[in-house]
Design goal:
three-stranded antiparallel β-sheet; 3 domains; DNA-binding; DNA recombination; alpha+beta; five-stranded mixed β-sheet; hpI Integrase, Chain A; elongated; 15 helices; DNA integration; Double Stranded RNA Binding Domain
């Protein structure tokens, strides 16, 4: 066991033995040294007492060159002092190292992707509607979070989240950035509840974009314009967009309408029953159908064997709304320009639902709890009292009268001469 003053140069110049290994002890730091194998591997170590017995603790491989991995001599001496100190106060550095390794392995196993896949299996897939599942997949596995896939989930920082939001905004989707933040917040909060991380990195991050578009409600003139544009569009999307405004149901729920979900179509109380696996809140929802809605449904051809009413393939509900929406917008813009009117402000298909709710409350005179029941909301007044036991049949007669009154009121907007026939309801 030769002794020598270890320096970076002397460690590098040591000649490997023909066989076995040789330990060189440092004269500067007692009990510290470097082990040299016949293969030329250099590893730092320190001798100390652990539990009353002398133990040799490996510190790590020595750095052979400036650009190679390993520990410098200074780093190894510092680590030797730390290990000796741990042993001196009764701790076993080997057990500490083992525990740290286990923690690191657990962190490596709990990567962002692994945690996200578990979140999807346990929280999203069993509970949420198909459209919401797609939104979560976009948020957790899309391009803005792709760089996080193999990182430990607890290593994602607020700066990482902000960069992802900024990337979404730079692609021209400020509303998408708000949406991304909302879904990431749900995910990281779920992780914190399961001790996968201590503090969600989304805490105290404000939505990056104002929600101005989300509060849009069309006025009477705009409703008349969009309806006329629907008529000009014709075909499948004309019927789909009209149903959105007449029923107030969500876009994907309406697009997936099947004949098997509709009962008593030729009777006095036709109903569209949306199963829970197709609604946003996973609750079955019954929609009483007004005569105007019945007329649209009866006019729809059945394509394929699955009974979809709004489809081009026969195997799924329709999609491709954006192109049809652009044609509707173009028609409205042209009509207003030719009439010398102001352009119509930006609006979304979801605004049709909000418009129906607002007008039913403010103009048709429907009680708020009935309006909420019509659109499958379980919030506000509907969460308290009797609506706490909400089910798909709640207020069914009131809802039928309300939706029929709304359809009649809408007829009055489309054809003003008929507005005198509209009876205002108060539930």
């Amino acid at each position: 066991m030769p002794k020598m003053k270890l320096t970076a140069l002397s460690v590098a110049r040591l000649t490997p033995p023909e066989s076995g290994q040789v330990d060189y002890f440092d004269t500067v730091l007692p009990a510290f040294g470097v082990r040299l194998s016949h293969a030329g591997t250099r590893s730092y170590f320190v001798m100390t007492r652990v539990g009353g017995k002398v133990a040799r603790l490996t510190i790590g491989k020595a750095k052979a060159r400036d650009d190679s991995p390993g520990l410098t001599l200074a780093e190894a001496r510092k680590r030797a002092g730390e290990l000796t100190e741990q042993a001196g106060i009764g701790h076993d550095p080997r057990q500490i190292k083992k525990a740290e390794k286990q923690v690191n392995e657990e962190k490596a196993a709990n990567t962002f992707r692994v945690a996200a896949e578990r979140f999807m299996r346990q929280h999203v897939e069993p509970r949420l509607a198909a459209s919401t599942k797609m939104d979560y997949k976009w948020a957790l596995f899309g391009q803005d979070t792709a760089a996080w896939a193999n990182k430990p989930v607890d290593s994602i920082t607020r700066a990482d989240v902000r960069r992802a939001l900024d990337a979404t905004i730079e692609r021209g989707s400020p509303a998408g950035a708000n949406k991304l933040l909302a879904y990431l917040s749900k995910f990281f909060n779920w992780c914190a509840e399961r001790d996968l991380l201590e503090v969600p990195p989304t805490i105290r991050i404000k939505p990056p974009s104002p929600k101005s578009v989300g509060e849009r409600t069309l006025n009477h003139a705009e409703v008349a314009d969009v309806w006329a544009a629907f008529e000009a569009e014709g075909g499948l999307f004309c019927d789909l967009f009209k149903l959105l405004l007449l029923t107030g149901q969500r876009r994907t729920e309406t697009a997936g309408m099947r004949l098997s979900e509709i009962s008593d179509l030729d009777g006095e109380k036709p109903v569209w029953e949306i199963p829970g696996n197709r609604t946003k809140n996973s609750r079955p929802h019954a929609v009483p159908l007004s005569p105007q809605v019945v007329a649209i449904i009866k006019g729809r051809p059945i394509v394929g064997d699955l009974g979809f009413l709004l489809t081009t393939t026969g195997t799924t509900g329709t999609s491709g709304y954006s192109n049809a929406k652009e044609r509707v917008d173009a028609w409205i813009a042209k009509r207003r320009e030719e009439a010398g009117e102001q352009p119509m402000p930006r609006w979304t298909l979801h605004d049709l639902r909000r418009t129906m709710v607002t007008m039913m409350n403010e103009h048709v005179g429907i009680a708020p709890h009935v309006v909420e029941a019509c659109v499958n909301h379980v919030s506000g007044m509907a969460k308290a009292g009797v609506a706490g036991v909400y089910n798909k049949a709640l207020y069914m007669d009131d809802r039928r009268r309300a939706l029929e009154a709304w359809a009649a009121y809408l007829d009055g907007i489309i054809s003003p001469k008929d507005t005198t026939n509209v009876v205002k309801l108060r539930q």
